Batch of 4 targets.
Target 1
Amino acid sequence: QVQLVESGGGLVQAGGSLRLSCAASGRTFSRYAMAWYRQAPGKQRELVASISTVGSTNYADSMKGRFTISRDNAKNTVYLQMNSLKPEDTAVYFCNAYYHRDYWGQGTQVTVSS
């Protein structure tokens, strides 16, 4: 069992940056594949980026070159550095952990103004 708590969301102007953090409880964080998803109003939840237990990363096409996912197993934390933000990045961002099953955080709102 793992609990996930996101932080770092907020309001930012287009072109700005934000860094999201997701702190996980438990002592087996390194066993979990981690990911960030987002859900905009009226849209389905979509994958933003993922990072495996060994640090391999994967990004949705629209985030490549702008977003960076990373993890610090010593701190039980996964990060999402978001640069060159666009209004269409506005969404609730969710942290996801996977080990035999999915675990979700409560989400953090990111709003990008034009």
Note: The mean pLDDT is 96.
Target 2
Amino acid sequence: HVQLVESGGGSVQAGGSLRLSCAVSGYTYNNYYMGWFRQDAGKGPEWVSTISGDGNITYYADAVKGRFTISRDNAKTTMYLQMNSLKSEDTALYYCVLGVSASTWGQGTQVTVS
């Protein structure tokens, strides 16, 4: 049974930084793409970023390009999202997802930028 557990969210002032982590257990995930979505209250999920299984290929939504960096440590079965120059519009519940089709989601970690 695969489990994704996000951590690292919190409250930060605009211009600040946060680093989200997603720990994966119960699954050999090294060959699989992973990614991040976010969802603000009253809105639908928004794709943020995707990373290939080996970490060499990354994709970003235009809204976060140049400010966010996705990475992974396969030895630790953990994925990260470094978020810099945060803006109020980055406020959302951030989810990590497994696979290109985002078949499995974590429980989310809240990011609030004021």
Note: The first strand starts at residue 3 and ends at 7.
Target 3
Amino acid sequence: EVGLVESGGGSVQPGGSLRLSCVASGFNFADSAMNWVRQAPGKGLEWVASIGISSGVPSYSDSVKGRFTISRDVAAKKVYLQMNDLKPEDTALYYCATDRSGGNRGQGTQVTVSS
């Protein structure tokens, strides 16, 4: 059974930074690609970033490119999302997931950006 547990969310002011973490279990992490997706209040799931676990090659949505960095620790089965220059529109529940549509995602971690 796929297990994903996110952590690291919180409340920050615009321009601030947060680092999200996700620990994975129950599947072949090293051969997978992992994603961060988010859901803002009243909106659908939005893909944020992906990384090939073996290759380490990242990809980003236009809305976060240049501000967010996805990375992974293969041995620890963890995926990270470093978020810099946060904006109020980044406020959302952030999930790590095994695909871009948000399938097999964890319980999420809340990020709130407000002055």
Note: The longest strand covers residues 18-25.
Target 4
Amino acid sequence: VQVVESGGGLVQPGGSLRLSCAASGFTFRSYTMSWYRQAPGKERELVASITSVGGSTNYADSVKGRFTISRDNAKNTVYLQMNSLKPEDTAVYYCKGYVYWGQGTQVTVSS
């Protein structure tokens, strides 16, 4: 099983990033996929999730209207489009599918 995030980096406040998560080794299309984040000294929190059937989405209040989660079942990939980024979005972002986690990708929002 592999869950691999990419797309993190340093961005200025107000900027955008798109994270990708490529998964293999399990039936991707059958499971809800989620993005979590963990900032230094804080607990890991759910950012967004998308269901396997119908693609219903759910977002943390702190990112509603700014982040969009999507998935491409043909590519076994889930995305997180992040717009209007704020310094408080700085964290390591993790992808989760079923019980499997990726290694995380760092997002830093700073001028």
Note: The two ends are 37 Å apart (CA to CA).
